[in-house]
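Module 6 notes. Inverse folding takes a fixed backbone as the condition and produces residue identities as the prediction. Think of it as a translation problem where the source language is geometry and the target language is the twenty amino acids. Below is one complete input and output pair. Work through it position by position during the lab.
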């Protein structure tokens, strides 16, 4: 059974940094499409960053240049380094795994990130 557990969220001032980590069990982060999404109150869940099995990354313009997704195959984790944080980055951040072979998605429980102005 796949389980994704996020950690690293918290309260930070605007301009600060946070590093989120997603620990995967029951799967291998190196073999699957992984990503981070976020959902702010009253808004739809939106893509933040993705990384493919081959290591290609993708970001929306809203976080490009500020956020970086990475993968630690030895630890079986996917991290999200967030720099130059803005109040509009405040949201619950979710780790995501997609298995192409079975077209199955998995989500973590989420971790709260709050950026104060």
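Target side of the pair, the amino acids:
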């Amino acid at each position: 059974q796949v389980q994704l557990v996020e950690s690293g969220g918290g309260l930070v001032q605007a301009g600060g940094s946070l590093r989120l980590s997603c620990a995967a069990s029951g799967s291998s982060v190196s073999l699957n499409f992984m990503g981070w999404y976020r959902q702010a109150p009253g808004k739809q869940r939106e893509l933040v960053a993705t990384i493919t099995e081959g290591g290609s990354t993708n970001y929306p313009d809203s976080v490009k240049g500020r956020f970086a997704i990475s993968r630690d195959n030895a630890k079986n984790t996917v991290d999200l380094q967030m720099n130059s944080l803005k109040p509009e980055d405040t949201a619950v951040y979710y780790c995501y795994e997609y298995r192409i072979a079975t077209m199955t998605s998995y989500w973590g429980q989420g971790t709260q990130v709050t950026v104060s102005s």
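Reference fact for the lab report: The chain has a mean pLDDT of 95.
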